[in-house]
What does this fold into?
Amino acid sequence: MSLTHESIATLRRRLASKEIHSRDIVRDLLQQIEAREKTIHAYTHLDREAALAAAEKSDSSLALGGIPIAIKDNLNVLGDPCTCASKILEGYKAPYDATAIARLRQAGAVFLGRTNMDEFAMGSSTENSALGITRNPWDSTRIPGGSSGGSAAAVGGRIALAALGSDTGGSIRQPAALCGCVGLKPTYGRISRYGLVAFASSLDQIGPLTRTVEDSAILLSALAGHDPRDNTTDLRKPESFLSKPDGSVKGLRVGIPKEYFIPGMDAETEAAVRQSADWFKKNGATLVDVSLPHTPSAIAVYYILATAEASANLARFDGVRYGRRATDPRDVLDLYHRTRSEGFGPEVKRRIILGTFVLSAGYTDAYYRKAQKVRGLIRQDFEKAFASCDLLLTPTSPEPAFKLGERTQDPLKMYLADAFTISVNLAGNPALSLPCGFTQANLPIGLQLIGPRFGEEKILQAAHAYEQSHDWHQRLPPA
Amino acid sequence: MSAPQINISDVASLARLTLTPEETAKFSSQIGQILSHMDSLKQIETGNVPEVTPPAQPNLRKDEPTPSLSLQAVLSNAPAQANDLIVVPKIVE
It folds into this structure.
């Protein structure tokens, strides 16, 4: 059997016992990529020779020795392009490793390639990439979700074992749900963002997309921990994230927030998620009805704060130090204007303008500061909910993957795709999406488990227990 | 209260973007719609609610020089350079 279907946990054991070599895994993956990448287009950059050479030299005694991992194209990997799927970073080559990359490198991982995304991580479908769209491996007429759509399509499509993504409003969890893989957004402060191209710094987190929950815990252990180069990172030593791999859910208090089951949501999604809740109950957990009353405001709050932060973060792309520069500028203002107008795509421009507006004189109180206050209420909602339960169970996305092109002309409708993921970023909590069923049309459905801050172990344990008694994660996409 | 009239070209200019007439028309209507949605926040009572401020930074480190990227590495991505400097259009007459 092809090694591309194995989990990292299994491959680690087989590598350590010398039963297989890293080059065998990379070769199998490259073969699968050859067969499927033309349809899926998950990768923006793939250096086959470099991946094989790194596999050849890998050390299987290390924690991730010889394990190939795909990387979202907004993380700096020394010597690689880092396009953020934008024309404005054409020609850029990373002069350093992001901390997350350095940690994986130290653990012995092999870097397989760079994955497609919405430009600067702005989008929910990966259709905002300047480097072409990515297709859902379960149905190539549908979107893979976004913004980490390339990472999710690669893992779901069995052309990567695991990938890194970034999540500002759902960009790991929503595509993981739509492509049938496990996606974890860790607590704000859990993983260093040094070397991640910043979108909205008070919300951005890096996290893994994997086949299994155990693999998610393995990668989190390698990535977590304080970094003096990102002073929002937590000082605590990272724990083991799956210390009781055979644990049960008995006695667990699972909160069901009523605001996450809304009229108009996809019926098959709702049914699958409610069935998952029943599984927890049957296995000894208690279901607790909770309310997060400010959920309906989350999208408005998010698109004010995220665009405000983005308008500041993206000011650095001015054609001076790196990336694209407009030819023959009249003066420096002309250089800025033309470089940015030629280099950014429509969604990025739209968000920069929106963010500039909500921060502009006369409007900051009505928009930016108001949104920061409502963000406070959203955080309080979570704190109150976690007083009566250990974790929250919700759908990850209100619907399965939608058709390519269906929403590109209606940004507001596209923004609503993140309705169930955004609050978690605003509050800073960890959350994980895992497969919990399929629609009649064979599209994956995602279950979201949200934990208290720094409560990754709680959600990983619960997700692992659920996964052990279901086989959704073993189902293969059509060839 | 309805969404404010926003002069897209002025705001774009603050962000150092020049829009085509087509972009201006399209963004005006789309951003108008998005702002109307955002105006729903005005209904929420936030009288005594403290603003969420950027995360407190308890982990500040000492400002000690440590090895960093080499000059060559930093300059390697600059679109134009000479004498170990980045070349840009003249700023001051």
Observations:
- DSSP finds 15 helices and eleven strands in chain A.
- Residues 3-252+387-474 of chain A form a domain with the Amidase signature (AS) enzymes fold (CATH 3.90.1300.10).
- Chain A touches chain B through 70 residues (CB under 8 Å).
